[in-house]
Amino acid sequence: MIVWAAASVLWAALPIVMGAAVPAQTAAVSTKSSDAEFEWQHHSNEELEGVLRAVARRCQDAAQVYALSKPSVRNVPLWAIELSDNPGQHELLEPEFKYVANMHGNEVLGRELLLGLAHYLCEAWRAGDPDIRSLLSTTRIHLLPSLNPDGWQLATDTGARDYLKGRANNNSVDLNRDFPDLDRIMYSNEARHIMHNNHLMDQLRDLDHQPQPETWAAMKWIMSTPFVLSANLHGGDLVANYPYDASRSGAAQEYAHSPDDSTFRHLAQVYASRHPRMSDPHRPPCTSGDYSFGPDGGVTNGAAWYSVRGGMQDFNYLSSNDLEVTLEVGCDKYPAASSLQQEWLDNKDALLEYMWQVHIGVKGVVRDSVTGQGIPNALIHVKNITRINDTHVRNEDLNHDVTSVHDGDYWRLLVPGEYEITATADGYLPLTHVVTVTNPPHREAITRDFDLTAAPNDSKLLQVTGEDEGGEVYDTYPRGQEPSPDELELPLEDDILGRLRMLGRLRY
Predict the structure, then answer these.
(1) Are 423 and 452 in contact (CB under 8 A)?
(2) 266 vs 458: CA distance, rounded Å
(3) Can 46 be counted among the known catalytic residues?
(4) Which tens digits make up the pLDDT trace of 192-211?
(5) Which residue in 49, 96, 107, 328 is the catalytic one?
(6) How many Cβ atoms from other residues are within 10 Å of residue 105's Cβ?
(7) DSSP string for residues in 414-460
(8) In Å, how far are 89, 102, 314, 482 from 487, measured between CA atoms?
(9) Mind giving me the DSSP string for 56-81?
């Protein structure tokens, strides 16, 4: 089992990492939208904040505005809004969800869709819509309309028609190539027959660049919040893209399966099938001569489309418990304001139904069988034992474990089937439950708790501290599988790499 050090800092560090909620009475900003209305227009960075604050004022019992830990290069705060029946804190067994948009500054439709979604959720909550009431009562939803406000400003100021201008941040860096390349670590583990491809930040040994401030902010957000499901909204095509984004061989185009390939394809298909054109097999491509994903159901594996290293999608999957897909929500990167309302109508049902997928699979609490206290950082391993026919059943380990969070709660997204789920934790005997997953729509996931019994040899509890009896610190690699000295060369200053590794310890 991987030993994760410094678990006690997880929640203590959270207010610093996420950024505290900003009170609504701080300096007002102008917006054309009143508290009760939403105008479909291209909102400036100042107006974006105003829209979010208007939503928070309308739904004080269900919404809260906050900023990520770092602003953009040009010092624009990265504003987010949380919507839940009890905003401001994680609740036991309540999964956390996020949408992120405008990562490429000139891809602006997702930015406006998330502002409209925040407004819609608030108004439906106020009106007593039973489905939205149920969603917000069982889910903690985070919406980040713009990860790249500087790029948006440049794209807007230069006419909003250039295919690339404004794509990058103010340092001319493509944020979706700027995350640590955890795919490289994961594929290296595979080559060495090490079945470990989750929570890989502690295995980070080198990095050829220092991430941008917007990337740092997103990384800290991901590593400090127990997200279960998310999506990143882009523009320029109509397709739902799922991991892995990077090819194994280095080929420009190559299908790259993940252990959760079936679940990822389900998630992508949920969005594509509820968009009126994304999954239409007869629709033409967005650009003449390009490929139309309509005949494929509107979905694609990322690396099969084109291989990307350093993307946010794979970083989520390989650094945390979060499963993320990338949504190309419109052919036009910067559509006319007059088309935004129709784009909302086209994407609304898909946006809502995708959020409900945070409740598929199984969830529960891992506890000490004597004290009843939750056990954080327990590993949840899944084996698919679904019956194929009268004589055969599957026997497939899903080699991507998730971990329990601060109070011992966990979530494991799964498609329908029968599974063996095993919980293991340092100092405890493992425990396995068999569960049947059916995923009825708009219902919470099936619950299976684990009450773990302490292992007979209490000395093994010393492993929690990361030290053996001789005081040696365990590495994140299994014994006998340590990297060679050449693999440990650090091209960056030690303090930068140390800060990156600390993100692996700021877990939930």
Answers:
(1) yes
(2) 43
(3) no
(4) 999 899 999 988 887 778 99
(5) 328
(6) 28
(7) --SEEEEEEEE-TTB--EEEEEEE---TTSPPEE--EEEPBPS-GGG
(8) 40, 36, 22, 10
(9) HHHTTTTEEEEE-SS--TT----EEE
